[in-house]
TrEMBL record, chain A:
Designated name of the protein: Peptide/nickel transport system permease protein
InterPro entries, per database record: BP-dependent_transpt_permease (IPR050366), MetI-like (IPR000515), MetI-like_sf (IPR035906)
GO CC annotations, alphabetized: plasma membrane
Membership in a protein family: Belongs to the binding-protein-dependent transport system permease family.
Keyword line: Cell membrane, Membrane, Transmembrane, Transmembrane helix, Transport
Species, as recorded: Falsiroseomonas stagni DSM 19981
Gene3D superfamilies assigned to the protein according to its UniProt record, in alphabetical order: MetI-like
Automatic annotation (TrEMBL), chain B:
GO biological process: peptide transport
Protein family: Belongs to the bacterial solute-binding protein 5 family.
Signal peptide (from-to): 1-22
GO cellular component, one term: outer membrane-bounded periplasmic space
Name of this chain's protein: Peptide/nickel transport system substrate-binding protein
Location in the cell: Periplasm
Domain of life: Bacteria
Solute-binding protein family domain residues: 67-433
Alphabetically ordered keywords of this record: Signal
Recorded GO MF terms: peptide transmembrane transporter activity
Gene3D superfamilies, alphabetized: Dipeptide-binding Protein, Domain 1 (3.90.76.10), Dipeptide-binding Protein, Domain 3 (3.10.105.10), Periplasmic binding protein-like II (3.40.190.10)
Source organism per UniProt: Falsiroseomonas stagni DSM 19981
Keyword presence, Signal: yes
UniProtKB/TrEMBL annotation, chain C:
Primary location: membrane
Protein name listed in UniProt: Peptide/nickel transport system permease protein
Residues annotated as domain ABC transmembrane type-1: 95-304
Keyword Membrane: yes
Family that this chain belongs to: Belongs to the binding-protein-dependent transport system permease family.
Record-linked PROSITE patterns: ABC_TM1 (PS50928)
InterPro entries: BPD_transp_1_N, MetI-like, MetI-like_sf
Key words, A-Z: Cell membrane, Membrane, Transmembrane, Transmembrane helix, Transport
Lineage: Bacteria, Pseudomonadati, Pseudomonadota, Alphaproteobacteria, Acetobacterales
UniProtKB/TrEMBL annotation, chain D:
Superkingdom, taxonomy of origin: Bacteria
NCBIfam families assigned to the protein according to its UniProt record, in alphabetical order: PRK10419.1, PRK11308.1
Name of the protein: Peptide/nickel transport system ATP-binding protein
Originating species: Falsiroseomonas stagni DSM 19981
GO biological process: peptide transport
Stated family: Belongs to the ABC transporter superfamily.
Domain ABC transporter per the UniProt entry, residue ranges: 4-250, 269-517
Length: 270, 515, 314, 525
């Protein structure tokens, strides 16, 4: 219980901070985050540029703020896509069982056998790198994980007696699925969603790192990190700052995830 | 200073990387592995750079990209310009000790011209402009080649590094089945060990028959002065630089321009800068509904502060030029060098007239080549100041190249590899879009001029034509030529005789190590 | 036993085929042409056509696919169209690098994390436990490649303890090789430790709740023995599954780490092949990765009964 | 002098005391029963004695002495030395009380290795002997088996064996047989007593079952919500309980109700040589053979009668119950309802059958959707047949809840109710649509004695009032006595005996029935 509250507080604060940063960025940033100024590249931090400037003379602080908006936005959208697809598949294969399950299972295995990044790489190359492209690609890449979790919990729930009871009442399968099964997948899915959120932020940066992230000049923490790599020696802050933000955000997400997990734990529920 | 220690660190790092470090070993950085040892066939820039140490052609380029005899004593062109006769130099031996004969030349040329071999330049020697119809060997020491009609390009094609200089190798370079084994050439170095992904090592050819005089381009005195040359593959820029500073490589042929100030400041290192003959440019699709209006294209050109842009992108290393013919070329003229000034007001007005209403232009670029990306970013920035909105479409290189070859773009930051003949510098973006969608400039009149320059062998008349074409280019702006990038080689004190040149891959002959 | 393995491999064939097909056609959907890439900006339609013909890319897709499959069935993955190397050996060569790093990292991670997680669970709620969990969560939250960069910055650039770029195989120079993989291994290990500590802790807590632990204690079994003989095997079973998953994913997916440390590994081979549209290499690698994935899971399932006899393999 | 002395024991969960000021003693060779219902703190007491309180509970005060040694004062090592030879413990759940990852030989020998100087060979011999003693056939080979290879009863025997192997002076048995079915229950307990007698061990027996107490305990201590309410020699205490709670417990013991005469009528529901088989688990390639659970059973139930379907675990009674409701598909035979064959019906065609039939499950924890309010749970059946306004449904639901004694609890979620209340909800849900036929599947087995009594009463009253036919699936003959009109005995998926309640209970014809009756414990007056 003690740890739960601790998680909630710390996680909440971290995420709150990041979100606040993003919201603020929507309204105001110190400088135009995409405005280049080649006369002052790679400036060290100063009163003028709090975190210095990047290789195009753009204000790092402003880009970090703008990056928060993009990174969080992309992550959120992606998670939604992954959930939508994953839940549909998971419910279907878990509840219908039989050949549906077999087929979907095979497809799922196939997708899981792909490294998620690679799947995204391929899809991106087809869709073309754009925000929506990345959301779709990563969404598809993570859907199988969701599907597996949902399927798992559906399989366990459908064995519970209240599902049988619902049948005994003469309720249709569909009704039973929606009324009695679906709600119970919520807990694991919510928990998963939080971790997903983290993974997506990571993957987006990884993609940027391989040159396929959210297209510049729009700033995401990922592509900032990526383009800072060549200047690691000259301007370490360029690499450290966005990475630190990602880490902070992920820490927040993970802690919240743990808190949720404890809150939604059936053992405490019953 | 922290950074120094950092580099020292990296140095020790790379000491581990290449244990060998002897007086007679020259270590040169290679940014990526080579494709093959088959000259002009399976190749890229790096590959050519290795091959030209091993094989030589009848002719080769000088520093200024003009053509000079190499294996040939001299080149005699018949009055009708159809027959080229190459008397071979005496005393030339292959790496396997065999003397060079006309038969060897014919044998190599015939393989090059076979379709299935996929020689990079076969098509160039079998085109409307230049068609090689015969290779004959009147005697053991003479080779004669006949063309269908006169061509200004013929010798250049034979000399082009990307054609493997039509390099002549001994027939034992092939397997019994005719497939490529390994090059047995006449060059100053012979192929030593090629360890994929790690290094290519060449060894000195003791019996090399050097020309007299100074080395220039790929001709002149190419005497090998070191026992072994190792091209060490280091993909990472920062690492390569560190390796140089740590003394783990002796030549960094291609330093990042942004590292130059720091390297120049450093005692004991010499920077060898040389303008190359490539071309960085912005392409515009003249069939685009918006850009088909020449006023819009002019507006865009006027919106760019080219000198500022070039200074920023090349860190002041390159000189701005709106001509596709590189300043380093013997064909570049003063007229081509002056750069029209930026004029935002004018740009705005033209855009207005062209019916521009704030549509977003899409500029395609890639991160594969930092210059493309930086150009695009700066261009976007400068257009904005002229009230022209644009967004970057940052593609993976393969995709951009695909879009380029299909002409499927609105604007594109693009770079053309070195063209060593002024006609080719225009040809690379001039042509009928119907048959060659990649061509940016589709204008029959200009095409006609271009064809002239290709048939014309008199240098001065060609220059005149090129100036005319240049003028038209500035009017019609299908592309905005920006600059030719600069090759910056860096060597430590103990390396002597190294020089960068128009083509950015390094040359190891004439280089000496003295500690 | 052998029969079981055979069955499992057979059962994997549909998956592998699906992977093969989807990779093949997915890659063909992607814009970009290997011939064009090789010829560059100077390519003419004719030269491209010739090169495509030489690469056998001029045939219809189904034909190409069929040819490729039959080739693969014959155990030949074909030749790289950029470097001309045989894909099979190339993959094995690069896989060696990746495997060395991943295995080392996962081994270290497991050796550190599992005991740590179990002890944390054993003393649930103690400061040690909270510390372990917090550390794990922190590690879990650090982007691996960023961690890599930082380590590179500190130990490579600032301190200069380890080389920053390059790779030699252990065969060539074991000591040097150690230097090269030190950082990547550390990076991966740290991240995985985060995952594994949490897993080990969670499953140990589950186990410690059960009666047979109380039973053991009621017999007067000392605590260390309770943990080792009674808690560990049961708590480790689920962790083992996770290990398998982690291993499967890492073996295929450390492209980013390999990029950071410029290591000639499988992941980078794949990414580079994708950029170069080197179809044979891409297809080969993907198939190989899928196979590794299947293999790892098989091994896990074979090991599982050792820790949980209720699940007998065959 | 007494072996175990507990004085002023206090066990706390956080700030709350779950055991308060508890004192008792166990003499050498004596069996003391700690009796009480769930939440009485009896299990916690047992754990406290052996010093293995689960996390969250702590020994907050009082003295526990074994043979005069204050355990709470002992250093851990010494305490450990006492566990095993000093005191051993048998747990309730045979499924989790043996280490699934260890061969039982190893688990048994472990204690010997720790507490005796026997060498490996000697230990093995001892184990074999002990296994033989607890009735495990072919013990030598079984030593190498894993727990999951044994049935629940067998495991409990092995458990017992590995504990008694160390000849503990005090044996703590925490609900040792609750998880087993009637037959095994009796056997295991008998075995335990014997072993204890042979070794002269005392027993601290934790149970909720007065029957066991009367049969096996010398003295009994009745606990209620953490405190001792009454203590004394078992027989007199049960014969003449003084404390109100004890009386309630005793009163909760099953009494046979009056026999009824059911007016003859055509059977309401009828199974004709019905068979049910569970499909084997299939893979992509092979498909395993189905496992028969019910084999051509014929059973007809008449309107208004209550039929008890009894049998040990694995007898197929639950399966049959499910099959009679078409919750499981029949693999053979046919099912008739009101004379019409419903075996193959599905979808809408099945609806009228569904509307007429209902079920009450054993486990009220899992049979109610934890995410629905009680009112909605009870109202849900009224969705069908369509046509009833939501408002009316809720009204009906409230009324029904009031009827089962849960007035005003409609807003609660199931987890906010006690076990008994949940079972009432389940009953309300089953009856709200006035079914003609109800299957009660072990409907009261999970409940404490007193609660069980009330729920049975509720069921009986409702049945009398609404007159639905009821198939009462149970292993507990006590319940049968209470409400059954007719008894059907199943074994190995077949019906072995069938007849009017009194006849079957008083003059059982089949051996299996006799065994069941012998095993089912009643008060011995």
């Amino acid at each position: 219980m003690k740890r739960l509250r601790l998680n909630l507080v710390i996680g909440g604060t971290l995420m709150g901070a990041v979100l606040a940063l993003a919201v603020l960025a929507l309204a105001w940033t110190p400088y135009d985050p995409v405005r280049t100024n080649l006369r002052r590249r790679l400036r060290p931090p100063s009163a003028e540029y709090w975190l210095g400037t990047d290789e195009f003379g753009r204000d790092v602080a402003s880009r970090l703020m703008a990056g928060a908006v993009t990174s969080l936005g992309v992550a959120a959208a992606t998670v939604l896509v992954a959930l939508a697809i994953g839940i549909a598949i998971g419910l279907a294969s878990g509840f219908l069982r039989g050949w549906v399950d077999r087929v979907l299972g095979a497809v799922n295995d196939t997708l899981l056998a792909f490294p998620g990044i690679l799947l995204a790489l391929g899809l991106l190359a087809v869709i073309g790198p754009s925000r929506s492209g990345i959301v779709l690609a990563l969404g598809l890449a993570y859907a199988p994980t969701v599907a597996r979790v949902v399927r798992g919990s559906v399989l366990s729930i459908r064995e519970r007696e209240f599902v049988e009871a619902s049948r005994a009442l003469g309720n249709s399968e569909g009704y039973t699925l929606l009324r009695h099964v679906l709600p119970h997948t919520a807990a694991p899915v919510i928990v998963l969603a939080t971790s997903l959120f983290g993974w997506v932020i990571l993957s987006e940066s990884a993609l940027s790192f391989l040159g396929l992230g959210v297209p510049p000049p729009a700033a995401t923490w990922g592509n900032m990190l990526a383009s800072a790599r060549p200047f690691m020696a000259e301007a370490p802050l360029l690499s450290i700052a966005p990475g630190a933000l990602i880490a902070m955000c992920l820490l927040g997400v993970n802690l919240l995830g743990d808190a949720l997990r404890d809150l939604l734990d059936p053992r405490d529920g019953a | 200073m922290k950074f120094r220690t950092a580099l020292a660190a990296l140095a020790t790092a790379c000491a581990l990387a290449s244990p060998v470090a002897a007086q007679d070993l020259l270590r040169i950085r290679l940014n990526a592995d080579i494709r093959s040892t088959d000259p002009g066939v399976n190749r890229d820039g790096n590959t050519d750079g290795i091959h030209w140490h091993i094989v030589e052609g009848l002719v080769a380029l000088r520093d200024d990209a003009t053509v000079a005899p190499m294996l040939a004593e001299r080149v005699d062109v018949s009055p009708d310009g159809l027959t080229y006769t190459f008397p071979l130099r005496a005393g030339i031996r292959f790496h396997n000790g065999q003397p060079l004969t006309a038969g060897d030349v014919a044998f190599a040329m015939q393989r090059y011209m076979r379709r299935e071999v996929n020689w990079r330049c076969r098509a160039d020697l079998d085109s409307a402009v230049t068609r090689l119809v015969a290779v004959e060997t009147p005697d053991d020491r003479t080779v004669a080649m006949r063309l269908e009609k006169p061509s200004a390009l013929f010798l250049t094609i034979l000399a082009r590094p990307d054609c493997g200089q039509a390099g002549i190798w001994h027939r034992d370079s092939l397997n019994a089945d005719g497939s490529w084994r390994a090059p047995i050439g006449t060059g100053p170095f012979r192929l030593g060990e090629w360890r994929r992904g790690q290094f290519v090592e060449l060894t000195r050819f003791a019996d090399y028959a050097a020309l007299p005089g100074e080395p220039t381009g790929l001709v002149g005195n190419k005497a090998p002065l070191v026992e072994r040359v190792r091209f060490t593959i280091i993909p990472d820029e920062a690492a390569a630089r560190a390796a140089l500073l740590a003394g783990n490589i002796d030549i960094l042929p291609d330093a990042r321009s942004r590292d130059l100030p720091e390297l120049r400041a450093r005692p004991g290192f010499t920077v060898h800068s040389s303008p190359s003959m490539d071309l960085q440019a912005v392409l515009m699709q003249t069939r685009d509904p918006l850009l088909q209006d020449v006023r819009m294209r002019r507006a865009i050109a006027l919106a760019l502060d080219v000198p500022e842009l070039v200074r920023a992108v090349s860190e002041g290393g390159s000189r701005p030029s709106r001509s596709p013919i590189p300043p380093a070329s013997g064909f570049n003229t003063p007229a081509m060098l002056d750069v029209p000034a930026r004029d935002l007001a004018q740009a705005r007005r033209l855009a207005q007239e062209a019916g521009y209403r704030g549509q977003k232009l899409r500029i395609i670029t890639t991160r594969r080549w930092e210059a493309f990306y930086e150009i695009a970013v700066v261009v976007q920035d400068m257009l904005k100041e002229a009230g022209i909105e644009s967004e970057l479409e940052v593609l993976e290189w393969a995709t951009q190249l695909d879009r380029y070859s299909r002409g499927d773009y609105q604007m594109m930051a693009f770079g053309f590899s070195a063209r060593l003949d002024p006609s080719l510098s225009y040809e690379m973006f001039t042509g009928p879009k119907a048959t060659q969608p990649r061509k940016a400039w589709d204008n029959p009149a200009v095409q006609a001029l271009l064809d002239q320059t290709m048939a014309e062998t008199d240098a001065n008349r060609r220059r005149a034509t090129f100036e005319a074409m240049h003028a038209r280019l500035l009017e019609e702006v299908p592309i905005i030529a920006l600059y030719s990038s600069t090759t910056n080689g860096v060597t430590p004190r103990h390396v002597q005789g190294y020089r960068s040149w128009a083509v950015d891959a390094p040359r190891a002959w004439g280089v000496r190590i003295s500690r | 036993m052998a029969l079981y393995v055979l069955k499992r491999l057979l059962a994997a064939i549909p998956t592998l085929l699906l992977v093969a097909a989807s990779v093949f056609f997915l890659m063909r959907l992607i814009p970009g042409d290997p011939a064009l890439l090789i010829l560059g900006d100077a390519a003419t339609p004719e030269s491209v056509a010739d090169l495509r013909a030489a690469m056998g890319l001029d045939r219809s897709l189904p034909v190409q696919f069929g040819l490729w499959l039959s080739q693969v069935a014959a155990g030949d993955l074909g030749l790289s169209i950029t470097s001309g190397e045989a894909v099979g050996p190339l993959i094995l060569d690069r896989f060696g690098v990746t495997a060395a790093i991943v295995l080392a990292a996962v081994a270290i991670a497991a050796l550190v994390a599992v005991p740590a997680g179990m002890l944390a669970a054993w003393r649930q709620g103690s400061w040690g436990d909270i510390a372990a969990v917090s550390l794990a969560t922190l590690l879990l939250s650090i982007p691996s490649f960023w961690l890599g960069l930082i380590l590179l910055l500190v130990f490579g650039l600032k301190l200069g303890w380890v080389p920053v770029v390059g790779y030699v195989t252990f065969a060539e120079d074991a000591w040097a090789a150690l230097g090269y993989i030190a950082l990547p291994v550390a990076t991966l290990a740290l991240v995985e430790i985060g995952v594994l500590i949490r897993m080990a802790r969670a499953s140990t807590i589950e186990v410690l709740r059960l009666d047979y632990i109380a039973h053991a204690r009621a017999k007067g079994v000392p605590e260390h023995r309770v943990l080792l003989r009674h808690a560990f095997p049961n708590a480790f079973a689920p962790t083992l599954t996770l290990l398998g998953l982690v291993l499967g994913n890492l073996l295929g997916g450390i492209a980013v780490i390999e990029t950071v440390f410029t290591l000639p590994g499988l992941g980078r081979l794949l990414v580079e092949a994708i950029f170069a549209r080197d179809y044979p290499v891409i297809q080969g690698v993907m198939l190989f990765i899928a196979l590794v994935y299947v293999g790892v899971n098989l091994v896990v399932d074979l090991l599982y009964p050792v820790f949980d006899p209720r699940v007998a393999a065959s | 002098m007494s072996l175990l002395e507990v004085a002023g024991l206090r066990i706390a969960a956080g700030a709350r005391d779950i055991v308060r000021d508890l004192s008792f003693s166990v003499a050498e060779g004596e069996t003391l029963a700690l009796v009480g219902e769930s939440g009485s703190g009896k299990s916690a007491t047992a754990r406290a004695v052996i010093g293995l309180l689960p996390p969250g509970l702590r020994h907050a005060g009082g003295r526990i002495a074994l043979a005069g040694q204050d355990l709470s004062a002992l250093p851990p090592a010494t305490l450990r030395a006492l566990r095993g030879p000093g005191m051993g413990m048998v747990f309730q759940e045979p499924m989790t009380s043996l280490n699934p990852a260890q061969r039982i030989g190893a688990q048994m020998a472990e204690g010997l290795a720790l507490h005796t100087t026997l060498d490996a060979a000697a230990r093995k011999r001892a184990c074999i002997a002990m296994l033989e003693r607890v009735g495990i056939t072919d013990p030598e080979r079984r030593l190498l088996a894993y727990p999951h290879e044994f049935s629940g009863g067998m495991r409990q025997r092995i458990m017992l064996a590995s504990v008694m192997l160390l000849r503990p002076r005090l044996l703590i048995a925490d609900e040792p047989t609750t998880a087993l079915d009637t037959l095994t229950q009796a056997e295991v307990l008998a075995l335990m007593k014997e072993l204890a007698r042979e070794q002269g061990s005392s027993i601290l027996l934790i149970t909720h079952d007065l029957g066991l107490v009367s049969r096996h305990a010398d003295r009994a201590l009745v606990m209620q919500s953490g405190q001792a309410v009454e203590e004394g020699p078992a027989a007199p205490l049960l014969a003449a309980p003084r404390h109100a709670y004890t009386r309630a417990l005793v009163a909760a013991l099953p009494r046979r109700g009056p026999a009824r005469v059911i007016p003859p009528a055509p059977p309401l529901i009828e199974a004709r040589s019905l068979s049910v088989a569970y499909p084997g688990r299939g893979g992509w390639f092979r498909r395993a053979a189905p496992m028969p659970a019910v084999q051509s059973v014929s059973l007809s139930i008449h309107p208004g009668e209550v039929v008890a379907l009894v049998g040990g675990s694995g007898s197929g009674k639950t399966t049959l119950g499910r099959a009679m409701l078409r919750l499981l598909p029949a693999s053979g035979g046919s099912l008739l309802f009101g004379g019409q064959d419903v075996t193959a019906r599905s979808g809408p065609a099945l609806l009228d059958f569904r509307l007429a039939c209902q079920i009450v499950f054993q486990d009220p924890y899992s049979s109610l959707d934890p995410r629905m309010r009680v009112r909605d749970i009870v109202a849900e059946p009224l969705r069908l047949p369509a046509g009833m306004a939501p408002a009316d449904r809720l009204a009906r639901a409230e009324a029904m809840l009031a009827e089962v004694g849960l007035a005003g609890l409609g807003d609660r979620f199931p987890h906010a109710l006690s076990g008994g209340q949940r079972q009432r909800v389940a009953i309300a849900r089953a009856l709200v649509r006035n079914p003609a036929f109800v299957v009660a599947d072990e409907a009261v087995s999970a409940l404490d004695a007193t609660v069980r009594q009330q729920v049975i009463a509720l069921l009986r009253d409702q049945q009398r009032k609404r007159g639905f036919a009821c198939l009462f699936v149970t292993h507990d003959l006590g319940v049968v006595e209470e409400i059954a009109d007719r008894v059907v005995v199943m074994q190995h998926g077949r019906i072995v005996e069938e007849g009017p309640r009194d006849q079957v209970l008083d003059a059982p014809a089949h051996d299996y029935t006799r065994a069941l009756l012998a095993a089912s414990v009643r008060l011995q007056g």
